[in-house]
């Protein structure tokens, strides 16, 4: 058995043992997300527009992650709408910044990987860079939206008569509780993955100026920042969506 | 007097994030005009003329356009400041390894002095302003929307960033020989410092720290056991990027750091909720605490594993596309570009899941029931 298969099966066993049906759902959503990512890549290789493919993939991935993750149907619906709104805002922000910073493709540090490869590709790597940045934030958006919506749903359950103004304040309070640890999840997730690159910089004695203008590093830091911004934006947007949905629900009664 | 002081106090409390925003904007403006700080000559591109655009193709039937452009600009720093220069630049439209430039951009030059004439080639694009702008935008959003908790989150990220860089330098000094020891040890320091900043020093923080370190350690031990049992079949260390030292320990160090944040995130959530539950219902039993913790953990583990999965695997997309366009099979492309990211996600996932019983166990032992350790100590 290959290592990936063994680790995957072990993860399934652990998830089911700890979370039961929910664990099984979590494992399926992970498998599905891998499939979606791989399928998106193949579509891009067949010259479908990378940004369009990413947007469609992104919405599907958010739906799968959120609906397979949450329990309460009302709060998961709100989380989904809010996360799609964040995704669209993020795309509007990422496109101009990536055009500005031009971090697409490969840097001089990649030359070993590129040896013997043809770089006549016919795919706009600027668009691929935009897609990569969007895809890398999807997990963070989904997680933050679920956390805020679930937190607010619990507050609503315990205090059904809470005023809408207090509900909004509660949303920001839940947000302030998750932001510190979520930032560290993102920081370590990204910087852990690029440890080798930093060791390279230190080993070759890059100057500060070279590091701050380096294609790969700037691209990487931009991805961390996009993820952080998406988490920050998710807090008010999910809260407002929850308040709006509660206002609707109260009007009907 | 006292009223006056109170008013300035509340005024300060209300407006400090905006002050930081304005100061930050000035700083970004400064970075846009920092050419003098660089020793490398910088050229500001004033006009761009396209000379030619030809179709190119390779043996895999990929088609691209090769564009030649002539850039006119002026040097903005150093001895040659003010000199006008014409540079030719050739790039492929896909821009995977070469770049096309636009009017108004600044580029770094390698200047060749040839008698009295100077000629130059472009070495890199100046990206510091775009970077500074995005940092500023993130910090501004964070402070204006989240205020004090935002400031704390920012502080912990900055502290961790500095520590991270120190550890990297230390690793370089030791030629990478003890990379696992450095980053394993630093993971503990990272966790302790971050939790101190986010929670403060108390029993809850110590419990969270214990769960975080335990969870990350279990993930690595389980991974090593699986590696040994499967003889690391399908783990292609040679596909690791930017490797300048032994890849296997480096990969494990990357995995430790990568999972640390998520495991910490999760233990913080579980233990904080359980502490709140204990305050609400002081006579709750250890068994009930464990059960509620498992429920909370079960809800957050799926999304959290996906956060890391997208971080680890999405960034392999550009290289994977390059492999596919070079007529490699899907399987080979996966092995050479994505497989290590997937292995990392799976190891982190196992860590995230196993942290749940660990965090619940620690909490129920410390605060639950009559025969708990917490009670015995009092």
Automatic annotation (TrEMBL), chain A:
Ordered alphabetically, the record's keywords are:
Membrane, Transmembrane, Transmembrane helix
UniProt key word Transmembrane helix? yes
The source's domain of life comes to: Bacteria
* TM annotation in the entry: 36-66, 78-100, 120-153, 174-201, 221-243
Q: What is this protein called?
A: Membrane protein
């Amino acid at each position: 058995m290959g290592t990936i298969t063994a680790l995957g099966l072990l993860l399934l066993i652990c998830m089911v043992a700890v979370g039961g049906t929910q664990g099984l759902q979590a494992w399926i959503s992970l498998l599905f997300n891998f499939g979606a990512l791989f399928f998106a890549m193949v579509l891009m290789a067949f010259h479908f527009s990378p940004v369009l493919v990413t947007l469609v993939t992104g919405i599907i991935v958010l739906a799968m992650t959120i609906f397979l993750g949450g329990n309460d149907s009302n709060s998961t619906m709100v989380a989904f709408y809010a996360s799609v709104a964040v995704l669209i805002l993020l795309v509007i922000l990422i496109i101009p910044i990536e055009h500005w910073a031009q971090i697409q493709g490969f840097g001089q540090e990649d030359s070993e990987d590129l040896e013997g490869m043809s770089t006549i590709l016919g795919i706009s790597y600027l668009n691929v860079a935009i897609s990569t940045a969007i895809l890398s934030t999807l997990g963070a958006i989904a997680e933050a939206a679920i956390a805020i919506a679930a937190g607010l749903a619990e507050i609503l359950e315990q205090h059904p008569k809470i005023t809408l103004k207090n509900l909004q304040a509660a949303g920001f309070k839940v947000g302030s509780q998750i932001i510190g640890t979520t930032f560290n999840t993102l920081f370590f997730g990204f910087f852990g993955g690029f440890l080798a690159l930093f060791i390279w910089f230190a080993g070759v004695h890059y100057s500060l100026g070279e590091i701050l203008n380096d294609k790969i590093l700037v691209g990487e830091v931009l991805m961390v920042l996009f993820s952080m911004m998406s988490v920050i934006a998710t807090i008010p947007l999910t809260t407002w969506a929850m308040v709006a949905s509660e206002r609707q629900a109260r009007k009907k009664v | 007097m006292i009223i006056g002081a109170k008013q300035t106090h509340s005024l300060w409390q209300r407006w400090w994030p905006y002050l930081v925003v304005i100061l930050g904007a000035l700083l970004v403006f400064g970075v846009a005009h920092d050419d003098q700080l660089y020793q490398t000559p910088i050229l500001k591109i004033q006009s761009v003329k396209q000379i030619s655009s030809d179709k190119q193709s390779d043996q895999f039937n990929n088609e691209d356009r090769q564009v030649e452009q002539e850039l006119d600009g002026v040097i903005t720093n150093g001895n040659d400041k003010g000199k006008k220069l014409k540079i030719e630049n050739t790039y492929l439209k896909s821009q995977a390894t070469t770049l096309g430039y636009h009017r108004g951009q600044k580029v770094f030059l390698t200047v060749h002095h040839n008698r009295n004439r100077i000629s130059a080639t472009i070495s890199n694009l100046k990206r510091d302003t775009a970077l500074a702008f995005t940092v500023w935008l993130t910090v501004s959003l964070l402070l204006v929307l989240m205020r004090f908790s935002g400031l704390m989150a920012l502080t912990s990220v900055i502290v961790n960033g500095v520590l991270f860089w120190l550890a990297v330098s230390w690793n370089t000094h030791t030629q990478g020989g003890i990379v696992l020891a450095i980053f394993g040890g630093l993971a503990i320091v990272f966790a302790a410092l971050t939790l101190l900043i986010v929670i403060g020093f108390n029993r809850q923080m110590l419990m969270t720290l214990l769960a975080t370190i335990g969870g990350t350690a279990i993930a690595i031990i389980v991974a090593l056991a699986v590696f040994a049992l499967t003889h690391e079949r399908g783990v292609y260390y040679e596909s690791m990027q930017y490797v300048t030292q032994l890849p296997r320990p480096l990969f494990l160090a990357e995995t430790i750091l990568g999972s640390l944040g998520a495991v910490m995130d999760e233990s913080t959530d579980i233990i904080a909720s359980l502490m709140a539950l204990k305050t609400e219902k002081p006579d709750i039993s250890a068994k009930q605490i464990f059960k509620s913790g498992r429920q909370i953990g079960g809800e957050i583990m799926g999304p959290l594993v996906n956060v890391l999965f997208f971080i680890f695997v999405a960034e392999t997309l550009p290289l994977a596309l390059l492999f596919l366009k070079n007529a490699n099979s899907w399987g080979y492309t996966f092995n050479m570009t994505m497989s290590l990211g997937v292995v990392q996600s799976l190891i982190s996932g196992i860590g995230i899941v196993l942290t749940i019983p660990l965090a619940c166990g620690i909490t129920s032992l410390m605060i639950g029931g009559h025969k708990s350790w917490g009670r015995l100590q009092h």
